[in-house]
Amino acid sequence: MKRIIKMMILSMLFATPCLSQWTSGRPDGHAPLGVMGDHTHEGGEFMLSYRFVSMQMDGSRDGTDAITASEVVSPSGGNFMISPEKMPMQMHMFGVMFAPSSRITLMAMVPFVSMEMEHLTRAGGSFTTKSSGIGDVSLTALVLLSENGSSRVHLNAGIGLPTGSIEEKDVTPASAPNKALLPYPMQPGSGTLDLRPGLTYLGQNGAWSWGAQATAKIRLGENDSNYRLGNQFTGTFWGARRLSQAFGLSVRLAGSRTGNIEGANPAFAGMVQNRMVPTVFADLRGGTRLDAGLGMNYYLSNGALHGFRLAVEAILPIYQNLDGPQLETDLQIVVGTQYAF
Ligand SMILES: [Cu+2]
Questions:
Q1: CATH code for the domain of 120
Q2: Distance (Å, rounded) from C-alpha 292 to C-alpha 253?
Q3: What is the CA radius of gyration of the chain?
Q4: How far from 1 is each of 8, 10, 15, CA to CA, in Å?
Q5: Residue 233 contacts by C-beta under 8 Å, 6 or more apart in sequence?
Q6: Which DSSP category does 327 fall into?
Q7: How far is the CA of 105 from the centre of ligand 1 (A)?
Q8: Which of 83, 95, 118, 320 could form a disulfide with 72 if both were Cys (CB 3.0 to 4.6 A apart)?
Q9: Distance from residue 81's CA to the centre of ligand 1 (Å)
Q10: Ligand 1: distance of its center to the CA of 17 in Å?
Q11: CA of 145 to the centre of ligand 1 (A)
């Protein structure tokens, strides 16, 4: 009996380092790419990252029901003068992480966005507006709260800075040849200081890893144009399997609730009165959604490019219930690279 116990203790001791010590040094040691602030670093480590996000919005919804652009502009339907039809959006997201200690990792994220919106007018015409620029920069302290062998929990204490413009303009048929202020979803920034709190849990065992993260964007005050964007609450969890030392696959679910805009830009008052276009309505911005992500992580654990990662995640909607008419999101692709040293 004593020998059996001794052997059990010995086998546990030997099994412990490979089974139950959480490590980022494996392909699934980072979350699926669409998750931000998912991991902390060891003291003294740096990480640079770049993500390219492509988002396709095509067609509108009112609640969970699809509504066509012709219905949105029809006097017997939505009764708007103009309906958005499509909105392709691209984002380049640059990130830096630095860990002054193993307990605290500091992270800065700088987004550059470019958007296009295609519209249908009641008369049957179409036109496209464009905007681009830097979005809201975020600064986050990731604080390791607990580290218990194969699992860890950290706090995401972040803020969003109002670095993005809320005054982008472009030519529309009604404004030509001048430029007019573009509606809410075409503005790269929020114009407010935001709190971005969150909590992240990570676990690993054998070839598997998993995690969960809850985050929020809480808008503080009101911007210079007398409104603030809706607060946003997101919960996501994922599971990943390492298929080799370098390669891992992941599945993820993400649910989020976005509130409507509080206040309103006075510049849109006349357009709201004339039911010009749904995108100038402060109360047609909110919604609830559930998305599924399928991802791939590639990690180089040795050689000259040690610490180099490549990852892709495709995110598809499962459910969206929008205060509409509002454009639905059809597909998001995130491609990125990370390098830790
Ligand atoms: Cu990192």
A1: 2.40.160.40
A2: 5
A3: 23
A4: 11, 14, 21
A5: 214, 215, 216, 256, 257
A6: E
A7: 8
A8: 83
A9: 47
A10: 22
A11: 17
Q: Is the peptide bond before 325 cis (omega within 30 degrees of 0)?
A: yes
| 3-state secondary structure string across 84-115 | EEEEEEEEEEEEEEECCCCCEEEEEEEEEEEE
Instruction: Write down the residue that tokens 């180089």 correspond to.
Output: 300
Q: What is the pLDDT of residue 324?
A: 87
From the first residue on, what is the mean pLDDT of each consecutive set of 10 residues in the chain (341 residues)?
Answer: 59 50 89 96 95 97 95 94 97 98 97 97 95 98 94 97 98 92 98 98 95 98 97 98 94 98 97 96 97 96 84 98 95 96 89
Name the nearest CA neighbour of 111 among 88, 92, 130.
92
Give distance in angstroms: CA of 19 to centre of ligand 1: 22
Distance CA 149, CA 106 (A): 23
Which structural domain, as residue segments, surrounds residue 278? 2-340
Q: What is the C-alpha to C-alpha distance for residues 205 and 25, in angstroms, rounded to an integer?
A: 14
Instruction: Say how many Å lie between the CA of residue 171 and the centre of ligand 1.
Output: 41
